Amino acid sequence: MDIPPLAGKIAALSLSALPVSYALNHVSALSHPLWVALMSALILGLLFVAVYSLSHGEISYDPLYAVFAVFAFTSVVDLIIALQEDGYVVGFMDFYTKEGEPYLRTAHGVFICYWDGTVHYLLYLAMAGAICRRKRYRNFGLYWLGSFGMSILVFLTGNILGKYSSEIRPAFFLTIPYLLVPCWAGVRVFSQPRAPTYCTANTVQEEQRKGLLQRPADLALVVYLILAGFFTLFRGLVVLDCPTDSCFVYIYQYEPYLRDPVAYPKVQMLMYMFYVLPFCGLAAYALTFPGCSWLPDWALVFAGAIGQAQFSHMGASMHLRTPFTYRVPEDTWGCFFVCNLLYALGPHLLAYRCLQWPAFFHQPPPSGPIALHKKQH
């Protein structure tokens, strides 16, 4: 997978978030939630106009260039918020976290801001750079799609259902485009042609003749997917208040953060159970039986989703903004860290395997009279 050069123009434009946020933080009129929402919408609108006027050619080639440019700006803002909430910088985004979206001050909010300000930011620059040079960015786009979708679904649902539901301000409705844009972007990313794999028909046939026991790496991934599926189901039952002793012990001694009334961890475990659990079963099937050409794409999507989710979940479980009673106990920290790290690492290994050796997932070449006729002509 080729890594495209980063978009310098967007990087420079996104860094304007630093002086803009600092200036707005000292405007006294922004102490009212409605003014915060209106000013935020105005800045995003002006930013879009600036991007359109400076990069008309790139937007004509691919409209997602404008999306990545605007989102890169918001990623820098999110990184500023995270650094400010952890005390590394001061005087930038106090007005927004107090009057705009106070739930960003939670441990979960801080860590999704860190992820957005680093991983998403680099993805935006890489995808925008690929558009500038008319290169493919499908794999980056699929990973971003899963990561961004998981982040926004858990965050918005937790805001509505958790203890911050009474703190929803007008700025909350600015997140509506964050739900609509990924749907449109996802259609465009999936419609892009896949990168050529250069697998010959003989290579495909030879690879697909091998049984699972002849492919030790795939066998290990299948075992991982089965164990991850059970772990996903177990944690889903835990947050649904399963009365068994094992669930009781786990939620109090290993992951008490699942009881936090902010609701983000409960929503996250339910997202895992309803979406990741079926994927584990389908992926294990695709690694066992050849020709499942859908797996490489969806492995990237779920790698992004689980990577983002586990980063936020693990970080929030140990962050100082999480009340002490809901943090991971010191004596079970090692078990918690290893289990959750493996849960995050597995989908990335699966995606890497699918991208590096895709022959097993190709559609089987035609055989019989049709193939013979093609060979003769």
Automatic annotation (TrEMBL):
PROSITE patterns: EXPERA (PS51751). It comes from the Eukaryota. Keywords: Membrane, Repeat, Transmembrane, Transmembrane helix. One of its GO terms (molecular function) is identical protein binding. The keyword Phosphoprotein does not apply. Residues 61-186, 217-351 form the EXPERA domain. The chain crosses the membrane at residues 33-52, 64-83, 103-128, 140-162, 168-187, 219-240, 269-287. GO terms for cellular component: endoplasmic reticulum membrane; endoplasmic reticulum-Golgi intermediate compartment membrane. InterPro entries: EXPERA (IPR033118), TM6SF1-like (IPR047195), TM_Tm6sf1/2 (IPR059044). GO terms for biological process: lipid homeostasis; regulation of lipid metabolic process. It is a multi-pass membrane protein. It is found in: Endomembrane system. Belongs to the TM6SF family. This is Transmembrane 6 superfamily member 2. The gene is TM6SF2.
